[in-house]
Amino acid sequence: MKKRHEIQDTLERFFHLQTFRPNQEAIIQSVVSGHDVLAIMATGGGKSLCYQLPALMLSGMTVVISPLIALMKDQVDALLAQGVNVAMLNSSLTYDRQRAIEAAAVAGKIRILYVSPERAVQADFVDMLQKCTVSLFAVDEAHCISMWGHQFRPEYRRIKGLRAFFPGVPFAAFTATATRRVREDIINELRLQSPDVFIGNFDRPNLRYAVYKEPHREVRMKKIASYVAAHRNVSGIIYCFSRADTEEMAAFLMKSQIMAAPYHAGMSTRDRARVQEMFQSNTISVVCATIAFGMGIDKPDVRYVIHAHLPKDLESYYQETGRAGRDGLASDCLLFYSAGDRAKMLRLMEKETDEAKMPAVRERLYQLYFYCETKECRRKLLLKYFDQEMDNCGNCDNCAAKKRAAKKSVKSVPKNAELLPKEMEEEILFAAGELEGMLTVPEFVSFLIGLDRLKTKTLGLRRHKSYGVAKYYQRSVVTNTVEKLIEDGRLRTAGDSIKKVYSGKNVR
Ligand SMILES: Nc1ncnc2c1ncn2[C@@H]1O[C@H](COP(=O)(O)OP(=O)(O)OP(=O)(O)O)[C@@H](O)[C@H]1O
Ligand SMILES: [Mg+2]
Ligand SMILES: [Zn+2]
């Protein structure tokens, strides 16, 4: 703790800030003490500061590995403006410029060096780094390392190679979204040594989540338009499936005298900048966008985010809805979907994804679909996805429906046995085939949910690819489904005293 004053001084002197955001100080403390660190902090939570500030306190150079040139550039410009010696090395620079930066680094003149993951592992680069005093490696957007994350970048997997050349130099990893599986991947893939792990609070109590199943396109657009018309004096974002959809939606709203504009990657940089500027200055109230919109937008008073189509997974969804209500005031997050949307999304993903990654992609889409179909608290489910436990929020559509029902109900309605979506059955059958007779029904259910039960641990099953496939579902629902599969003869139980689960066909 002896460095506390020094940390505070650095914050004021270089960043002109007075106070820390939640977790920042503890993370910084841990990084400057030379520990390996994994920090998970919501979008906009202030992760950059957690490696920039230590970089200014440590004696040598900090190497920041970051996936996008645009993300590096913003940070480098901001730090240069504060008089910090920073540089970035990437393919957008000339050969001479790159050599000059390397020379400066070797001469100890650079405090923070930003590089892409590809560059970070190149032999020439590593040779050069070995001539420098490296005091810290910071890995930003660390979820890119995991195949289970939503932005897998295979190059990230090679970063661990650096550890052999720089034993004793701490690694700090940062990300905004990481499920438990992704967190474990980050720790393993970066070979983090007993890291200090910080997980921020992801809950946003001011966001009201609601989901509507609406297969008819026309009706869907009309419903959206009437919501927007009822909120015409405030700002909102509508995420659409395709470029054409953004244009159609914007035109549809304009017909109702609502100031809307489309925004998508097919527009020129200039047009996009203009739309963003008009939105920031409240000249237009609605942007109808593909996901290209939002990265780097920091408008605090966005009152609603509407998904006019099913997004691709819960991580993207939570990140996109997180753009609503940054000022802490009540805001709505509405999602419209249909089974057809899911099929359409799946086809698109199949086109864009290599086959090896498809199972993970598909799984994430199904989890999102389950979120849409659930009758349970939405926010609870969303946060559970990030391993954060909470009570029913009392604010989402399902919680509201329950409250209404409780008010109305005189006699209690018997609860129908809920089952998992059909696609999950395939996952279960696959798992049963892999585990043939290893587990009893309750153990098998624990395995599917990913519970740390003794058995799954001792058998080394926690690393199995099916471990936790049903982790976002309630135990009772998983049990119901397994029992139904047994009833249908698609699974079997067999054994003398203790019955174990087998796939239907292989029963002895
Ligand atoms: N302690 C602080 N006090 C005030 N503002 C802060 C503080 N820390 C960071 N910020 C500001 O918060 C904004 C977001 O910070 P930053 O870009 O580091 O977020 P991030 O966690 O990396 O988000 P993302 O996941 O989107 O990359 C920046 O404008 C930054 O200057
Ligand atoms: Mg960041
Ligand atoms: Zn709720």
Provide a compact summary of the structure.
Helix content is 44%, strand content 14%. It has 508 residues and is α/β, with parallel strands linked by helices.
Number of strands: 15
Strand composition percent = 5-15%
Which residues form runs of ≥5 with pLDDT under 50? 410-415
The shape, in one word, is: globular
What do these coordinates show?
The chain has 508 residues and is an alpha/beta fold. It has three domains: 4-199, Rossmann fold, CATH 3.40.50.300; 207-402, Rossmann fold, CATH 3.40.50; 422-506, Orthogonal Bundle (Arc Repressor Mutant, subunit A). It is 44% helix and 14% strand. It has 21 helices and 15 strands. The strands form three sheets. A seven-stranded parallel β-sheet has the order 3-4-2-5-6-1-7, with helices on both faces. Helix 2 packs parallel to helix 3 (47-57), helix 14 runs antiparallel to helix 15 (358-373) and helix 19 (441-449) crosses helix 21. The chain is globular, with a radius of gyration of 25 Å. 39% of the residues are buried. Mean pLDDT is 90; it is low at 410-415. The chain binds adenosine-5'-triphosphate, magnesium ion and zinc ion. Adenosine-5'-triphosphate binds at residues 17, 19-21, 24, 41, 43-49, 176.
Please write out the topology:
Blueprint: H1 4-15, H2 24-32, E1 37-40, H3 47-57, E2 61-65, H4 69-81, E3 86-89, H5 95-106, E4 112-115, H6 117-120, H7 123-130, E5 134-139, H8 162-165, E6 171-175, H9 180-189, E7 196-199, E8 207-213, H10 217-230, E9 235-239, H11 243-255, E10 260-263, H12 269-280, E11 286-289, E12 302-307, H13 314-321, E13 331-337, H14 339-352, H15 358-373, H16 378-385, H17 397-408, H18 422-435, H19 441-449, H20 454-458, H21 475-487, E14 491-494, E15 500-503
Parallel strand pairs: 1-6, 1-7, 2-4, 2-5, 3-4, 5-6, 8-13, 9-11, 9-12, 10-11, 12-13
Antiparallel strand pairs: 14-15
Helix pairs in contact: 1-3, 2-3, 14-15, 19-21
Bound molecules: adenosine-5'-triphosphate, magnesium ion and zinc ion.
